[in-house]
Amino acid sequence: MGDRVTVTHEPAANRGLAVQFRRVRGSRLVRQNLVLFIGGFLAGAGGFVYHSIAGRALGPEAYGEVSALVGVYTVGATINLMLVVVLARYAATLKASGRTGAIRHIMDRTARVIAMPAVLFCLVGAALSIPAASFLQLRSPVPLIMVVVAIAAYWYTAIPRGVLQGSQRFTALSANLSFEILVRTGLLVVFLGLGLAVFGATLAILAGVVLAFGLGLYTLRDVLAAEPDPVRVRTMATFAITATAGTLGISLLYNADVVLAKHFLGEHDAGIYGSLNKIGTILFYGTLSVSQVLFPRVLEAVAKRDYPGRLLLLSAGIMTLLGLCAIAVFAAASGLVVGVLYGPKYQAAQPFLLAVGFVGLGWSLNNLLVQFFMAVHDRVFIGLLAAGCALEVILIVTFHAGVGQVVQDVVIAVFALLGALSLRLVFLLPRLQPEMLLEEDREV
């Protein structure tokens, strides 16, 4: 008899898992998400180190000022986010046709267009700084003026970042995001050591923005070396309106609450709520890479006449999984999270940490849906987003007896908006065809 050969059969379930793992590992969407997730994680970690250092060094009362000023900065930086979305859209379209010179043209044109508004914004901001500082209960208007200048400078940072995102150069974009926050956090330590307090915190923000802009231009030196190729951009103005509505709405959703809390709550409670807001944004910024990758990928799918709905569903799954992991940490170690990030003076925030975790995931999912709607040229979401922001403001203005009540207001507003946007998606997806989305892009 011949030698017997023993054959070991791998269980079918294990083979299936191995195949799925290889498929996920080979997915371009997953790889791109991973690159931006690493950059976003470093940027987010640096951002929370910034707030942790400021909170510990300044105490709840002065940190309440920093938190409110960062909220003002984030809302004011909506123009930056709008420009990133618009430039990413057109850079993606032009890259697909190999028109590097046209990308150089839209960079130059954008820089010229925003120059005068940036100067006027700084002048108006300086003129209104005293009454605005009074509304926010700031000790001095000077840090607010510094924030206004940082906002105007941040608009220019959108130019390289939008092109990097649209051309899917996610490694360079990831490095740029991380670099800004690392500079901001490092200089915060220096400025606080010099006794600059709240002013130093805002000066560090401005320095990070300026240096990130310089790095972005250096990264795109190949594009800047190309001969400008004039391109028609008639649809940019129309899309800019949609992009402004989307980015402003999302920005207000996670910043209006902390600004209103600073106005309605006492100094100590405002500082506690500010810490909760920043902890909640761990989820938002930790999953932001998913939305950043989705936008140009949907545009690419449209250009190739592919159906983009599957990309959205996969992205939502990735985002939800990441968010639930963070929420599990919040639930298991809420005291540790607050203690590590802000110290014992902020333990009053601990009972609300789990709710704020779900708020952060709600912000992320709302942003993901808004990015998808913008990419497929749907504008119905604008009214829904405006209603969600208005609901949050109305609830906080009406019910603000304490930190817990403000948290409750935000939970209601965020998830009411998520339900409305999800319902819009249910009606939109069955009727969505790539051919419906190409006509407007042909004008570029």
Structure, described:
The model has no long low-confidence stretch (mean pLDDT 83). The protein has one domain. Helix 3 packs parallel to helix 13, helix 6 runs parallel beside helix 8 and helix 13 runs antiparallel to helix 14. By secondary structure, the protein is mainly alpha-helical. The protein is built from 19 helices and no strands.
Brief digest:
The chain is built from 19 helices and no strands. It has 444 residues and is mainly alpha-helical. α2 crosses α8, α10 (234-253) packs parallel to α17 and α16 packs parallel to α18 (403-428).
What is the strand and helix layout of this fold?
Elements: H1 12-25, H2 28-76, H3 78-96, H4 100-127, H5 129-135, H6 142-166, H7 170-193, H8 197-219, H9 221-224, H10 234-253, H11 256-264, H12 267-286, H13 288-303, H14 309-332, H15 334-342, H16 353-375, H17 381-398, H18 403-428, H19 434-441
Helix pairs in contact: 2-6, 2-7, 2-8, 2-11, 2-12, 2-13, 3-4, 3-6, 3-10, 3-13, 4-6, 6-8, 7-8, 10-16, 10-17, 11-12, 11-17, 12-14, 12-16, 13-14, 13-16, 14-16, 16-18, 17-18
Instruction: Give the domain tally.
Output: 1
Q: Give the overall shape.
A: globular
Mean pLDDT: 83
Cα distance, first to last residue?
76 Å
Features:
single chain; 444 residues; mainly alpha
